[in-house]
Amino acid sequence: MELIPDDVVEVTVCSEEPTPVSEWFESPVMEDMPDDVLLAVLQYVDVEDLFACRLVCKKLGALALHPDVWRHRQLVAAKAGLEDAGQETPVLRLAPCLREVCVDFPLDNLLFATTRCAVANMTLEVWSDPSLQAALVLRNQEALGRLKKAELVFCPMEPILNDIPWQPMLSAPGQIPWLVFWTAATCGLKTLVINMFPPSVPADASLFRNSVVPCSTLTEFQCEVSKKSEPFVNFVLAGHAATLEEVGLAGAGLPSSSTLTATLLAAAPNLARLQCALLPGLEALAESASLREVCLVVTSASDLKFLGPRASGLKPAVPAAAAFLRRADQLHNVALRIFAADAGLALVEALASCERSQVKTLALDLCKDGSFSWLQKLLEPLIALLALRCLKVQVSAWQKGDKGDKPLPCHHAWLHTAPVKRLMAANRRLRLVVCGFQGDTKPKYCSGDEPCDVCLLGCGTSMPSECTKLLARVGKVVGDSHLDGE
């Protein structure tokens, strides 16, 4: 006979249907409970039962619509198939506030433009003709005064084909500049994210040159930088310069030689974190006293064939980026996503030549396949970075060993390479983290039936040796910069 553990006091088996949540609150005891206790319980009640609670009594009806009950909830547009469409209308009519709302354009429910439900984070998924409806939704939320984050997603109507850039099915693409303008000009907004700026949209530079942002409020701005989006990006950087702290400019870079974007970034007095391609004039940011974290995407036109004709004009400003890294002694965290081998090596050498470098964390994401000899050249200059405490290498394209037939499967194998051994010996406080194709941290040494040639030597698991000492300094490090994906 199986014994019941001592810590189990009572076991009850119930075959009846669960009692509706609304009936729990009909007990006389509930009337005597403090409001803050009831509010704490109602936060965990689902929406359908929450509306049912409104019919129990006046006290519970009022508490069911209290902002504390709703401020953590989200509403996802029914078009995405992630939310019951039947709850959308009552939520927009009755809920005082929500943490997040995802809404599709054109609107299926016009209550999004007139609701009194104040939203903190809003995602606008644009399918076609978004201008007027999106403006009404944004202005309504701006008036309610709670909107802090807006994300624009331009959705393709057809599957994306290999090597063919997607084109959103917009019957009026000329309205997009107005939409992004209205979004960027929303007062009180703290975060603005724009995914995949549509390449078919005409660049209306006059709209942004002749307009100003009512007030600088943005602290975070994420947008693809390209020929089409350049006027808008510069408009945001100029209008919100006083408050911007984090900027992410995805994309391959600018086909023009204009240094305006880099100049505007350098003029932001509070800019602390930057992620971008190799922009022309990037050396101007060396004078940014507030800048602490930088992630540079190192590309070349030959690496971006999927862009088609647009790639021919891309000229990554490697000398400007090298000058920036050579002079920027205020940086603490640096990440390089390397698609172009020669340019990546030039930037690593420039970073290592900074005389008063304060770089503590360096992340190297090797996104393009390269020879192991090239990887060795990439690591050798890092001996000069005396302040470096964490080196993270992500091998997105498997780097080959000296024989060219096997990848390096573990930290132990990496420690037996000459540049890593010299680097770890020269910097006794340095920790090494090596990640694989999917970002998973490699093991310290191989286990199982197929150890690598290095692990077969046994120096990493036997008596104390140089390898065992070095292995104590590899693996996951707490507190990695968010720029390198941690």
Automatic annotation (TrEMBL):
<feature type="domain" description="F-box">
    <location>
        <begin position="27"/>
        <end position="73"/>
    </location>
</feature>
<dbReference type="Pfam" id="PF12937">
    <property type="entry name" value="F-box-like"/>
</dbReference>
<dbReference type="InterPro" id="IPR001810">
    <property type="entry name" value="F-box_dom"/>
</dbReference>
<protein>
    <submittedName>
        <fullName>Uncharacterized protein LOC113201856</fullName>
    </submittedName>
</protein>
<dbReference type="InterPro" id="IPR036047">
    <property type="entry name" value="F-box-like_dom_sf"/>
</dbReference>
